[in-house]
Amino acid sequence: MNDIKNIAVIVGSLRKDSINRKVAQALIDMAPAFLNLEIVEIGHLPLYNQDFDADSPAAYIEFREKIASMDGVLFATPEHNRSMPAAMKNAIDIGSRPYSKSIWNAKPGAVISASPSLQGGFGANHHLRQSLMCLNVYCMANPETYLSQADKLFDPAGEVTETGRALLKLFIDRYAEWVRNW
């Protein structure tokens, strides 16, 4: 396959030194050459408000155009109170509106969750998948990837460990197959 596929990477954590941002960057570094992964920032997006559907803020428009131009989307999410972070949900809502103009429709997607907890963001992962199903994002079913104790997958310098590399490589290679077969 020679066609380059542009993939948006949405990181749910806004924290500069977040585990999920490190996971996203490691996936970018490990991706096969035909996948061009790019983090699309969401922290600057104003809260979704249906009053803006007719006259959207510039940040909404730019975000929608960026995601619409992508061939797929990969979500890296922490867990906040057994759910996805508010910033992630906000981005999903902005992209799904105005009604019948969703930029998420029919894209091959994947979800990876990472947390220092033992559950690895299981609740956030599944809650996010539920929203994506409603929006017709075709989420890769396997491998389900919940990175528990994810802070230990990176060394003190922020480099991915051997164990982390193996888990992330499996995930990105399977996503590459998912996109290739799309």
Rg over alpha carbons: 16 Å
Distance between the termini: 12 Å
Mean pLDDT: 96
Low-pLDDT segments, ≥5 res: none
Series of H and E elements: EHEHEHEHEEH
Helicity range: 25-40%
The largest sheet, given as strand count, sense and whether it forms a barrel, is: 6 strands, parallel
Structural class call reads alpha/beta
Indicate the multimeric state. Answer: single chain
The proportion of residues in beta strands is: 15-25%
Number of helices: 5
Number of strands: 6
Which shape, going by the Cα principal axes?
globular
Set down the secondary structure blueprint:
Elements: E1 5-11, H1 19-30, E2 35-39, H2 58-68, E3 72-77, H3 86-96, E4 108-114, H4 122-134, E5 138-139, E6 145-147, H5 162-180
Parallel strand pairs: 1-2, 1-3, 3-4, 4-5, 4-6
Helix pairs in contact: 1-5
Compose a concise summary of this entry.
The protein is 36% helix and 16% strand. The chain is of the alpha/beta class and 182 residues long.
Describe this structure in words.
The protein is an alpha/beta fold and 182 residues long. Helices cover 36% and strands 16% of the residues. The chain contains 5 helices and 6 strands, in the order βαβαβαβαββα. The protein has helices spanning 19-30, 58-68, 86-96, 122-134, 162-180; strands at 5-11, 35-39, 72-77, 108-114, 138-139, 145-147. Strands 1, 2, 3, 4, 5 and 6 form a 6-stranded parallel β-sheet that branches. Helix 1 crosses helix 5 (162-180). It is globular, with a radius of gyration of 16 Å.
